[in-house]
Design goal:
Helix content: 25-40%
Distance between the termini: 63 Å
CATH class of the largest domain: Alpha Beta
Structural class: alpha+beta
Largest sheet: 5 strands, mixed
Number of helices: 15
Strand order of the largest sheet: 2-1-5-3-4
Radius of gyration: 26 Å
Number of domains: 3
CATH topology of the largest domain: Rossmann fold
Shape: globular
CATH architecture of the largest domain: 3-Layer(aba) Sandwich
Amino acid sequence: MEEKTMFNVTVDGEVHTYPRGTSYQTIAADFQDRVPCDILLVNRDGKLCELHKVLDRDCSLRMVTALDKPGFQTYERSTVFLMLKAFYDVAGRENVERISVEYSLSSALFILARGNFTLDQALLNRVEARMRELSALALPIEKHSVNTDDAMEIFRQNRLIHKAQLLSFRVNSHVNIYSLDGFVNYFYGYMAPNTSYIKCFGLELFENGFVLRLPAQKDPRQLGEFRPSKKVFHELYQSTLRSQALNASNVAELNTTIAQGNATPLILAHEAVMEKKIGDIAAEIAARREVRFVMIAGPSSSGKTTFSHRLSTQLRACGLRPYAIATDNYFKNREDTPRDENGQYDFEGLGAMDVAQFNADMVRLLNGETVDIPVFNFKKGAREYNGNFLSLGPEDVLVIEGIHCLNDQFTHSLPKESKYKIYISCLTTLNIDDHNRIPTTDARLLRRIERDARTRGYSAQATIKMWPSVRRGEENNIFPFQDSADMIFNSALIYETALLKPYVQPLLFGVPRDSDEYIEAKRLLKFLNYFLPIPADNIPKTSLMREFIGGGCYHV
């Protein structure tokens, strides 16, 4: 049979013909003027492909830019590679002991660097200048498939010990590594074809490290605003120190702990750390005698409900009597709920809440009156009053959980001293290795996929599909108020991804290959492959993770 030499490529419904072996970078160049920023990848019939790959079949292509999540991740990853190469060039490879990309902060990545050099802005300016030199040279970022043992030896020689340790748990005999002008590294995910694609970045000193500033996804052509939450950063940094103390700051260390049969001591130690933190928060609330309202808010799947129960237990231990109130019971009746730009009910915005009634009821409670607390009937879309009367005694506090609890507009009538505000989020500090971080949103998405499947019967596809909308609501209604909190509580658990793996993996395999959500499902599956699983047997019944996997002692 004669081998086909020309292939049909469909882009935007138009059919174009290209010879076999044409690179996707060449094809993308023909359509660059149709999109506002650089094409970084192509989506070939539902599969992401790097631009160095070549045409070998008839196909449909969609151009992927940094406006798309996979494209933005590719840009971030490629920029980190460029920064590392430049840093080693400027400081001298022999002088660099360790550079670790820790976590995301306000359109930037926080990075720690250790070695025989002085980390100051002058050094960073030289590194940034070197990055721009390398970008102007359009140096190729080359991908190589090498024997896993050979890759481990390369990383040992370059003092990238955690990368070598991570690969020791890899089943496949080969691994893909990337090289840039002789600098070799391993990255989880796709890369840009050459350095000329990396144009928008900056380096600045920050705290005891520095930040690599990046563009915002909504406009990849200019740097995003850098306005980090100092409170969130402090909690992230403290969590990093705790992870290091437990010898589990990256996946390689976690896998080693699991493989050696020491997962249970790690689990119990981290749970003890979390319980102590909750106890400390309760003690601080009890010491502030004027506090009557404990306001708890955080993004989706942060474990707010279990946290509220555990905090209430600790408040009782401090001599207080906590009562739970859900702000959902103060939704406006359905006919009064505002709609968004698409004509759908907007349940996320403050306009969906009956702010006036909530404040009136809370002020009456504060004044010693008895109040009939409503219950919202979601089937009818209306508030109901069923004789749920409440009054506050001298030792009583209300534990109130809801999306707007940090927003003072929601509690405008309550005296500041009567409120204690807690921001809870799953602030992941565990990374795959020094140069491949785990986004906090990934940890929360995995939690939600399992909980949605278990409690609501949702498929992983449905959860992934609604996730961008959930994230937009958080950006608008929660994150802007996180610095107003009296306390930041990090609900991330070092071991949770290893725990969730056996639960979530089968759900992700159920996402249809021809769906828009398949690319994200496949990315998460590849991510889970790095982890050794752990069973749920020794997870305490009070653990925040029980809110997601079930089997807990709280009614959530």
